[in-house]
Amino acid sequence: MYKVRFEPLGRQATFDRPLTILQAAQNAGVEMLALCGGQGTCARCRVKVRGDGMPPVCERERGVFNADELAEGYRLACRTTICSDVVVVVPEVSRPRRQRLQVAGQEHPVTCCPPVRKVCLQLPEPTLEDTRDDLRRLVEAGREDHGIKLAARDVTALAQLGPAARRGNWLITAALRGRDLIGVEPGDRSGNVHGVAVDLGSTKIAVYLVDLLTGVTSGSSGVPNPQIAYGEDIVSRITYALDSELGAQRLQGVVVDALNGAVAMLCDSAGIVPEDVLEFTVVGNTAMHHLFLGLPTAQLSRAPFVPVAASPLEVTARSLGLRGASGAIVYCPPCVAGFVGSDHVAMVLASRMAGLPGTVLGIDIGTNTEISLKHNARLQAVSCASGPAFEGAALCWGVKAAPGAIERVWIDPDSHAVHAVTIDGQEPVGICGSGILDCVAGMLQAGMLDRNGHVLGNSPAIRLGADGLRELVVARSANGAAITVSQRDVERIQLAKGAIRSGIDVLLDAAGIAWQDIDATILAGAFGTFIDPLSAIRIGMLPPVDPDCIVQVGNAAGVGAKEVLISMERRHAYEELAETIEYLELTVYPRYSRVFARSLRF
Amino acid sequence: MYKVRFEPLGRQATFDRPLTILQAAQNAGVEMLALCGGQGTCARCRVKVRGDGMPPVCERERGVFNADELAEGYRLACRTTICSDVVVVVPEVSRPRRQRLQVAGQEHPVTCCPPVRKVCLQLPEPTLEDTRDDLRRLVEAGREDHGIKLAARDVTALAQLGPAARRGNWLITAALRGRDLIGVEPGDRSGNVHGVAVDLGSTKIAVYLVDLLTGVTSGSSGVPNPQIAYGEDIVSRITYALDSELGAQRLQGVVVDALNGAVAMLCDSAGIVPEDVLEFTVVGNTAMHHLFLGLPTAQLSRAPFVPVAASPLEVTARSLGLRGASGAIVYCPPCVAGFVGSDHVAMVLASRMAGLPGTVLGIDIGTNTEISLKHNARLQAVSCASGPAFEGAALCWGVKAAPGAIERVWIDPDSHAVHAVTIDGQEPVGICGSGILDCVAGMLQAGMLDRNGHVLGNSPAIRLGADGLRELVVARSANGAAITVSQRDVERIQLAKGAIRSGIDVLLDAAGIAWQDIDATILAGAFGTFIDPLSAIRIGMLPPVDPDCIVQVGNAAGVGAKEVLISMERRHAYEELAETIEYLELTVYPRYSRVFARSLRF
Hints:
alpha/beta, six-stranded mixed sheet
């Protein structure tokens, strides 16, 4: 009988016979990557073991780990048999990422202090002897009962006062934002305070309904951004907004409709109505931010790519057509630059990277990839045009991350056998971003690609494609078609990873440090959450940092949007952060082209 | 050769032969009332004469003036022949009121200090090395060049910044309200600062376009209130707003459309566009105020007739659908009570009655008549349901004050001959309010009515009407029909004047004074401007005050709306005034029914 405790999950199990750590984990219900099925070849089941009576390190492990790692206790879970009490630390990198709800992200506890609240008030009923107007009654009750110097600057909210007071028999609930009246309801509804946080991505919109009394997320929803119908990428949407007379209005309108739909659904599930939503926060890249607010975007598509406004903005939900409380406000926290939007600042905020010790890299991978480097007290940010390849677009067999998409690939370096895992285990339909990354990384490791990105013909997994160029056969679809990664696909990935890597390298160069100085790397966003960091390192998208110091935080932008929704303290922190982040324009960085050329190589 | 100077006009003329003062005035082009054609019977040509060598007072004059008046130099102009230098003071009451533009009112000089202004700024052009957003450039230029801590809270105004800066080659004009950006234009447009003041009457809307740099009214326009199509009086409009789902919206919409039309026309004449209008002020009775702002009105039609809000309100013109600068604000100054609106406060403000010495009565005659009494430091106000009779409605031959309307009537007390004067001298089509008032006053003077309001049959001008009741034949229309004032008409006027008089008497009673204590009476509004104050006194609508102390100020509400538009100082004065005015509810005044019964008698 011996005990195994798995950290950081804190799960413990007792066994009565010797097992490999992988078997023990599987028996204890602890999920661990084992792409090769526990044959010791994929080397993905890296764990750190503390305990006595461990078997000696095997040949394979010596090939995988360096001396430092071995000294720290690193083992391959499938190669290490245990039979005494041990503590097994399963690093992030060795755990499968099953999370499909792409709106979730790693959260830190935040104390609720939203900008809105509700107060219940008993007003004196008017008589012919006391003909003060309704508002004066409300103001005086607010002052006497709650010490509030109430202001009624929103006439639509004010319009609710008369009927609500009479329907509620002069017992009313006033919704306030600061001292501003933003809604009135009959009776006591003071327990009903909600907000909506939105991460407005160019592809996906994440919507969170939050109880502002508790800070609890009552529901969340990810909906496709309907602007895609008017342009897959941002530049084509800006062009549409410019060319068509009502284009900008339409782009704004479809997003608002989508938000109204998502909010209505979330409210319905939570047993409330959209009018119970007192505050909205919306983060997004600068173009999304401008389109959403009705700000002109033409200037964002032309050098020097300057936003109209990068400061915090507040508009009434009503003026945008968003359903909510009468005077509900949409708070759009500040952007940093034309290509560093409020979603990136929200990610930096939610990841707490500014407060982490040492040097921290924060990366938000998308069509545009924003990267921030925190070094000493400085935070510098760049934006790289990484293109849509990582999102599965513009590739032969590229698909979105949906059931049937090949999301994980491991190529045996010796046999060149290709192991592909699809989302939900369904028949393969194509390859999504994380799968492509694994393919290229696997091809590199197996020597099927040279440093310039040429697919070599030395493998049974490689064939000649219809275009006369070589391609890797990854799997076969249900109808027998070969799902492949072509030479062109490899080149697109090469450009994308080169863009990202050059951004990282410029940031390091500007800070006067090397990649060895990076203490932690944060990967955010849907793609950043699902990729295998080892593959990212292998293809050179990321510098060869310690994989255990890579944290994949999920939709941190959405988490940031929630934080600024539920807490004014976090809102102030966000605004300070946005002021702190220095934007570094890559195109005018002195050594940029040299850095970029170097970044292209595998 | 002798000289005659006419005051307060300051006109002077020289004559070489003896003339009556009336003849001299007519020769000098000084307009003076002479309803009887200078026969000494109507006694309307009262003047005050200073000079030596005046002829003795005649019998007729002794019958018209009391000893005090004679001692002051009062004469009848048609009875007094002059042949030496004199100064003739022609009191207000002896001058005809020809002014047809019912939007004009007596104005006092006001120093311009509007809430809005424009500043011209040269912004630094962005480059790849200086990628600050447009707004930051604007804020920094505003701070450096003008010491303004500019805020961009209106996103629509902000949206103009990007294109304007680029079109104006980075020279822009920012429209500001306080420190808030409300509009941006390319180039230097700082000389172009306009505002619109509105007096929103239930019958007529008066619109004034004002240059806010000079305070000069560039143009004014009176348009009918299109809500009339949905209800002649306020109660039927409130009912319409309640009964029909979109009723309130429609009532708001038609007024906004009418305003947009009037503003566009005025702007066109002034060579500007509605987007040059940076601020609006709107005064009106409380129901108009609520309907305009989209506040519910049901409660205004039910006791205790309490407004939703009587405090100053500001809304964006855009949210109401009013065309103006992007972030233009509509300022609606406060009301006092459900039936004492902001138009009445504006009248009290514009007439300066609060600052006049002694005890002053201010009366705004309409379907509802608001009356304020200033006595010592107190200002008390009542509202009386005087009905539409004075506006020509609900009377047999009642018409609006338009060409052909009989506006002035004089009945010879001896011969009972009826002299009728129509607007613009056209063929008579009916009788407007001031004409009706003259008829009733004339009938009283000629003994054709008893104190209870019964038409007596003792006169050739009286006949039996189709309803079997007596009626006065005032004139004949072009087709020979008799234009009459019926017994029913007299009763309606009796009710109307009784309502007004009882309001005055309650105010006097509440202040503990008598009508003899009134030092000045101000009559405002279209009707108050055109009536003959002597007729008003004769029928008992007004107490028998000195007619020379009656001032008819025209559309003082419109003047007040202009004052609060062009001057923040006047706006503060208005708001203080609104706080000062105490509303007195007639229906709960202890002695009201007795006072009203007494007020009905002629």
